[in-house]
Design brief:
Blueprint: H1 2-27, H2 29-63, H3 69-85, H4 90-99, H5 102-119, E1 121-122, H6 125-130, E2 134-135
Antiparallel strand pairs: 1-2
Helix pairs in contact: 1-2, 2-3, 2-4, 3-4
């Protein structure tokens, strides 16, 4: 994992620098800098709008008694999009704007959900007493008695 992150953190700036130089040669460095500022401003605005909508969706799901797992993943992706849109460069801007497109974000959300399903181990309180784990979100047939106490 460390090696992959190291490669990513070294290669992305090199690619971005190459793209900025090449685009600057073609259209002038002034216009290149202007494009970088414009994409950052547009990206920040879109991130704010979609982030606010996601917060409202989380609150709505919680009011209905649902677990807002989709909304939380959307919020995480929007947060990442906002961060990389503020990073100067064309490659990061492309990835950031892709994360702000709801249809593409839903495909990525499904991919993340399936990826995380295979990586998680679910434990219940009954499992701790028996030292067993349930992998891959398998249904646990144990019954857990609970009592709701209101203040």
């Amino acid at each position: 994992m460390f090696f992959r992150l190291l490669i990513l953190f070294i290669s992305v700036p090199i690619i971005e620098l190459f793209l900025l130089i090449e685009v600057g040669k073609k259209i002038s460095w002034e216009l290149t800098v202007l494009i970088i500022f414009i994409t950052a401003i547009i990206g920040a605005r879109l991130t704010k709008i979609q982030g606010s909508q996601t917060i409202r969706n989380v609150q709505s799901a919680l009011r209905m008694g649902k677990i807002p797992h989709r909304e939380v993943l959307d919020g995480l992706m929007i947060l990442v999009a906002g961060a990389i849109l503020l990073t100067p460069g064309f490659l990061t801007d492309f990835v950031g704007f892709c994360l702000l497109i709801p249809k593409l974000r839903s495909y990525l959300r499904e991919f993340l959900k399936n990826f995380l399903k295979n990586k998680m181990i679910v434990r219940t309180s009954a499992d701790f007493n028996q030292n067993k784990t349930t992998s891959n979100w398998e249904k646990d047939e144990s019954v857990i008695d609970a009592e709701i106490i209101e203040d």
